[in-house]
């Protein structure tokens, strides 16, 4: 089974190819927009593996949360590839990919959401599966939920980005996973593809979490603003 | 040659298929469009982030609909054209990412296009199209420009707005009158019941001697006029009439001046404001006197759409333009049309 994974939720984009348990992965060059190099990297990686696009059985992508435009580049490219190849799409939550890559049995993930906020999610490993504890949230660093009682690891670029958060998390060990990677997205998506859990590309969507992006006219008026 | 066209530069998602025959005659085979106007109305204007979020929901279903409408498959597509700019960055990126992904998997090239080139060429989708060369008046919510169109990829800017676009002037003054968003079409409807000359607003730059426009002062003039007044139904209609006449008057005068200056016989009117009935009535009347021919795109192709993008892509390739190898995704949110070559 061959699975392609795309991850551009942060400015450190990457692509990965999963071939029956063997993983190839490439990072988009730093400083360049991932959108320029994403597909050329995919082609180079596929050529190196001796595979044609038609040999792919599914397309996975980092669905979010993360940078909105990055999520849409990964989702749009995945949709385009999947529609053309008539293959399923597998959206993977970025925070889950980070928790998976961290490897600890219990991981609290904090990804920088910019605008002085962090995306937060806590995962507990149960067998081969990561279970989300509660819900994924976006909040100011000072209000971010701390790990529950017991042994927890923490990771994510949201911790070093905000002193208000790193001070509160000083008692927990900080892992090396700063951002999500396509390799982790591929590893999580592969068993799901094998179980037939892929989606029709029309149903693939980014997971934004930060959903209030504008005020309606009615809301502006209620706040004493202008129509 | 079968070209797929994808448009996502602002608040409309469009997908279309255009086939160019070997004899140079083309046919629009299928097109599907989704307008986001209803979604943005609640916010009083286009919210770029929401526009991007909607584009990514709509693209796949619209593509499937366009293919199903004409019974073609993706394997039959020879090239994928899409709007590369100008427009909202996030919105453009959705169409570009999808198109490049699609083309990469199909092993077909892409044709990244200038949005306004689509509008300029859109009258060629009509049953009786104009022939090159012609003068084009491009009027929409985002653009007000007069161009000389000598052929595919040969465009010369003759004049443009120095501030607001004509469609923006319609929408902003409509908002002052409480007509909601986008209020331009509502303003035009109300204007039909207004008395000509009852309310007169200034015609900015009417006698400037060039082909440029300025519409931002109209907002102030309208605001000054309506401030403190209780307007009954008729008075409101009269104000609408006054606004529409001021905008249309300038557009008609400058468009005809451009035709005269270039010595051409054909005028093409494209963009959303091109659907305005008063503009069409006045232009048609003047055209008879000036012995010129005025062409409008079909009403459904006045607003943004995928058909004009598929058409522009097919015409470019037929004119010898090189398609691009699929892969790199690069958008151009700001892109002067003057930088365009074949």
- Tell me about the biggest sheet of chain A? 5 strands, mixed
Strand-pairing-aware structural class of chain B? alpha/beta
Topology-level CATH name of the largest domain in chain B = Nucleotidyltransferase, domain 5
The number of helical runs of chain A is 7
Low-confidence stretches of chain A: none
So what's the CATH class of the largest domain in chain A?
Alpha Beta
- CATH topology of the largest domain in chain A: the name is Nucleotidyltransferase, domain 5
Q: How are helices and strands ordered from N to C of chain B?
A: EEEHHEHEHEEEHHHHEHEH
What is the CA-based Rg of chain A, rounded?
A: 18 Å
The averaged pLDDT of chain A comes out at: 96
The helix fraction of chain B, in percent, is: 40-55%
Beta-strand content estimate of chain B:
15-25%
* Contiguous uncertain segments of 5+ residues of chain B: none
Question: What does the main sheet of chain B amount to?
Answer: 5 strands, mixed
Estimate the mean pLDDT confidence of chain B.
95
Instruction: Please name the fourth-level CATH homologous superfamily of the largest domain in chain B.
Output: ATPase, nucleotide binding domain
Number of domains of chain B: 2
What is the chains' assembly state? heterodimer
Output the structural class of chain A.
alpha/beta
Note the run of SSEs of chain A as H and E.
EEEHEHEHEEEEHHHH
Distance between the termini of chain A: 55 Å
């Amino acid at each position: 089974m061959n699975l392609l994974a795309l991850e551009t939720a942060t400015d450190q984009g990457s692509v990965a190819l999963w071939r029956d348990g063997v993983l190839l992965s490439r990072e988009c060059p730093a400083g360049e927009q991932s959108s320029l190099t994403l597909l050329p990297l995919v082609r180079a990686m596929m050529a190196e593996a001796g595979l044609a696009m038609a040999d792919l059985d599914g397309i996975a992508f980092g669905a979010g949360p993360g940078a909105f435009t990055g999520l849409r580049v990964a989702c749009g490219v995945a949709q385009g590839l999947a529609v053309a190849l008539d293959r399923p799409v597998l959206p993977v939550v970025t925070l889950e990919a980070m928790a998976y890559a961290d490897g600890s049995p219990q991981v609290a993930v904090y990804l920088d959401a910019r605008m002085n906020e962090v995306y937060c999610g806590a995962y507990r490993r149960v067998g081969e599966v990561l279970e989300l504890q509660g819900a994924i949230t976006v909040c100011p660093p000072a209000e971010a939920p701390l790990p529950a009682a017991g042994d927890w690891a923490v990771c994510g670029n949201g911790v070093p980005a905000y002193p208000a958060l790193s001070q509160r998390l000083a008692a927990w060990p900080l892992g090396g996973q700063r951002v999500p990677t396509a390799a982790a997205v591929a590893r999580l998506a592969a068993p799901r593809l094998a179980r037939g859990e892929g989606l029709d590309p029309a149903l693939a969507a980014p997971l934004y979490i930060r959903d209030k992006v504008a005020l309606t006219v009615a809301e502006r008026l209620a706040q004493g603003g202008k129509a | 040659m079968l070209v797929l066209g994808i448009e996502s530069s602002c608040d409309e998602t469009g997908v279309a298929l255009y086939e160019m025959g070997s004899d140079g005659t083309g046919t629009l085979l299928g097109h599907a469009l989704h307008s986001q106007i209803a979604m943005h109305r609640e916010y009083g204007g286009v919210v770029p982030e929401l526009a991007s979020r909607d584009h990514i929901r709509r693209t796949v279903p619209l593509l499937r609909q366009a293919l199903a409408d004409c019974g073609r498959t993706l394997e039959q597509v020879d090239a994928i054209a899409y709007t590369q700019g100008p427009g909202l960055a996030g919105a453009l990126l959705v169409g570009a990412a999808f198109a490049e992904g699609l083309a990469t998997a199909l092993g077909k090239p892409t044709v990244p296009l200038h949005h306004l080139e689509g509008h300029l060429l859109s009258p060629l989708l009509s049953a009786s199209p104009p022939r090159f060369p012609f003068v084009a008046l491009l009027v929409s919510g985002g653009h007000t420009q007069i161009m000389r169109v000598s052929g595919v990829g040969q465009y010369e800017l003759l004049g443009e707005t120095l501030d607001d676009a004509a469609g923006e002037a319609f929408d902003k003054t409509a908002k002052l009158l409480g007509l909601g968003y986008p209020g331009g079409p509502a303003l035009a409807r109300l204007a039909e019941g207004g008395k000509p000359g009852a309310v007169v607003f200034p015609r900015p730059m009417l006698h400037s001697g060039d082909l440029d426009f300025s519409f931002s002062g109209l907002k102030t003039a309208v605001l000054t006029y309506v401030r403190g007044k209780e307007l009954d139904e008729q008075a409101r209609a009269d104000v609408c009439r006054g606004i529409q006449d001021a905008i249309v008057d300038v557009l008609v005068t400058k468009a005809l001046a451009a035709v005269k200056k270039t010595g051409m016989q054909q005028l093409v009117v494209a963009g959303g404001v091109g659907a305005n009935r008063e503009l069409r009535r006045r232009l048609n009347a003047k055209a008879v006197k000036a012995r010129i021919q005025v062409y409008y795109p079909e009403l459904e192709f006045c607003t943004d759409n995928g058909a004009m993008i598929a058409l522009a892509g097919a015409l470019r390739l037929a004119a010898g333009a090189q398609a691009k190898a699929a892969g790199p995704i690069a958008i151009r949110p700001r892109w002067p049309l003057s930088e365009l070559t074949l």
